[in-house]
Amino acid sequence: MATPRGAVQPITSRSVVEQATEELRRAILAGHLAPGTEYSLRELAGMLGISFIPIREALRSLESEGLVIMRPGRSAVVAPLDLDDLRGIYRLRRALEPEIARRSCTLLTDGELDRLESHAADFGVREHGMADIYDDHHAFHLALLAPAATTWDIRVLTTLWRAAERYIRIGFGRLDPDPAEHERRGRAHMDLVEAFRTRDPDTVGAAVEKHLARNEKMAFSALS
């Protein structure tokens, strides 16, 4: 039986670049490729089992995201963690998120808050490290703000969350061995849901501000 024309697309060199970019990004964000470490293109190509050409293109993309620094010749350095950048990211988050949350708390349904409360409890499971919960954690905060967020709000917040991702994954990942840290994560997010249930903008704004300030302090301490 003949395969319909166009049903299966051949693998292109571009798809290899995209796969290499995705895998290197994942390894950098998780800290497996350590900040400040220099790798030759030959090393990276060997890790991924591909040639130099897609590695070079992948690194150029990651350089534009601020994750690597290209060196003359055939090497690249994983961008060091810059704690001033972390402070700047949280300064912008504190300027945006409490204000959006103040409006969103009057729009979220009880059913949505029930769903988010269930997710918040999952963040406290001891077997779940930061790497396991990060995507759900991102979705949790987006869901709290989404009813009052414009398209541009979400674009800006997504940019900030992506910029913070490596700091959060690595910093809070270092706290994973402490069982009390898992309990704290669960409780901190349950407290946010409880604040939103009050439907009081001042209460919610203060709760989000407190949540961000505490997370910034803990991440900064873990990374320092």
Describe the structure.
It is elongated and about 60 Å long. Helix 4 packs across helix 7, helix 4 packs antiparallel against helix 9 (201-223) and helix 5 runs antiparallel to helix 6. The termini are far apart. A hairpin with a 3-residue loop joins strand 2 (68-71) and strand 3 (75-78). Strands 1-3-2 form a three-stranded antiparallel sheet. The chain has helices spanning 13-30, 41-48, 52-64, 83-104, 110-122, 130-145, 151-173, 179-197, 201-223, and strands spanning 38-40, 68-71, 75-78. The protein is built from nine helices and three strands, in the order H-E-H-H-E-E-H-H-H-H-H-H. 69% of the residues lie in helices and 5% in strands. By secondary structure, the protein is mainly alpha-helical.
- Across the major sheet, the strand order is 1-3-2
Shape: elongated
Portion in beta strands: under 5%
Rounded radius of gyration (Å) = 20 Å
Secondary structure tally, helices? 9
Oligomer: single chain
- Helix-strand category: mainly alpha
Distance between the termini: 62 Å
Q: Please bin the fraction of helical residues.
A: 55-70%
How much is the average pLDDT? Answer: 90
Number of strands: 3
Uncertain runs with pLDDT below 50, 5 residues or more? none
Q: Please summarize the sheet with the most strands.
A: 3 strands, antiparallel
Q: What letter string, H or E per element, gives the SSE order?
A: HEHHEEHHHHHH
